[in-house]
Amino acid sequence: MKNPATRIMRYLQNAQGAIFIFIATVTLNLLCAPDAQAHKINLFCRFEGTTLHGEAYFSGGDPVKNSPIRIYALDSGEQLASGVTSGEGTFTLPLEKKVPVKAVLEAGHGHRASWTWDKKDEQAEPQATPSVEVENPLTAIAAGLVVIAVFFGILYLWKRRDAA
Amino acid sequence: MHISEGVLPLATLAGGYAASAAGIGMGLKKLKDEQLVKTAMLSSAFFVASFIHIPVGPTNIHLVLNGFVGLLTGWSCFIAIGIALLLQALLFQFGGITTLGINTLTMALPAFISFLIFSPLLMRQSMPVVLTGFLCGFVSVFLSALLLSLSLVTAGESFMPAAKLVFAANTPLMVIDGLITALALQFIGKVKPEMLTS
């Protein structure tokens, strides 16, 4: 009768190849860490008269090209304008009047960034407080990996109990 | 390659969940103790692979590796891919919870089909491992793109252009995923050949 430690060692040996591949994948991913950071999107907008100008780029500096941008009225939620960012990640959208707005950029892969302006009287300034969805990809990736390990650990215990 | 929330009709979403649940059920039944660590590792690899981005034209695509996962896990690929997609949805807003079922199906069914086609080829060693790997990666991404496009079409005729675009955008990925799968399999064939035939 094998003891549990021996059994676990055997399972680990069984998965040796997978472990190698996994480490290789993670290493490759870490090498591409700036790309992982590329999920972070910065969106800056400013009013010139009633025209809203803006630019969007990934945290690596690459422009967010050809992505749909929509402008909503902050109070009613009504869509005031929409467009697509240029090859330089910029856009210019004329509005009927200068009202508090929220600009929402869809950058694909489920990522979006938004920019809100709610000052009625003040001169709108370029805001440096973009909202981003993915704050720290590496931490979240690590968290995800831990959850996967825990999930399969529980699955193992569950299957053992089933077998007993 | 995934569908965001709020696009597909309820029937497609429900169908995706039902089919994925059936796949996961079979996976749980077929999953042997000694395959757990391997499945967990491949699940992690699948989870991480999605963060490796490759710029293609105006957009960028990420590795999928579902054929690789399917080939080495068989039925259990539904579990491996399901949990990875759930975490991607929760942590990174890739896809979403309502679309989790259809997204899992889109990834795992082609993975499983690749397993059915290519696992016997690996066993018999009738083809070089590298070629098997390439075809496995290529076919699974091809089928995934096809399923994704088809599910988009269920949302209405107006999604037809989007469906075609999604398919076209994923064409380079089929080649890239094929190459990576080929390299990975060749590597495993060197360090742990019995893993390919178990």
Features:
heterodimer, A: 164 residues, alpha+beta, 2 domains, B: mainly alpha, Arp2/3 complex 21 kDa subunit ARPC3, two-stranded antiparallel sheet, 8 helices, 2 strands, globular
Radius of gyration of chain A, CA atoms, in whole angstroms:
24 Å
Q: What order do the helices and strands of chain B follow? A: HHEEHHHHHH
Helix share of residues of chain B?
A: over 70%
Q: Give the strand order of the largest sheet of chain B, numbering strands 1, 2, ... along the chain.
A: 1-2
Content of β-strand of chain B: under 5%
Helix content of chain A: 25-40%
What is the total number of structural domains of chain B? 1
Mean pLDDT of chain B: 88
Distance between the termini of chain A: 14 Å
Low-confidence stretches of chain B: none
Provide the succession of SSEs of chain A. HHHEEEEEEEH
Overall CATH class of the largest domain in chain A:
Mainly Beta
Number of helices of chain B: 8
Structure notes:
The complex is a heterodimer of chains A (164) and B (198). Chain A starts with a helix and ends with a helix. Chain A has 164 residues and is of the alpha+beta class. In chain A, strand 6 (101-106) and strand 7 form a beta hairpin. Chain A folds into two domains: 38-133, Macroglobulin (MG2) domain (Immunoglobulin-like); 135-164. Chain A contains four helices and seven strands. Chain A is elongated. Mean pLDDT of chain A is 76; it is low at 34-38 and 121-134. Helix content of chain A is 36%, strand content 27%. Chain B has 198 residues and is mainly alpha-helical. Chain B has one domain: Arp2/3 complex 21 kDa subunit ARPC3, CATH 1.10.1760. Chain B is 71% helix and 4% strand. Chain B contains eight helices and two strands; from the N terminus they run H-H-E-E-H-H-H-H-H-H. Chain B has helices spanning 10-30, 36-49, 66-73, 77-92, 100-124, 129-153, 160-169, 171-191, and strands spanning 53-56, 59-62. Chain B has a two-stranded antiparallel ribbon. In chain B, strand 1 (53-56) and strand 2 (59-62) form a beta hairpin. In chain B, helix 2 (36-49) runs antiparallel to helix 3, helix 4 (77-92) packs antiparallel against helix 5 (100-124) and helix 5 packs antiparallel against helix 6. Chain B is globular and about 50 Å long.
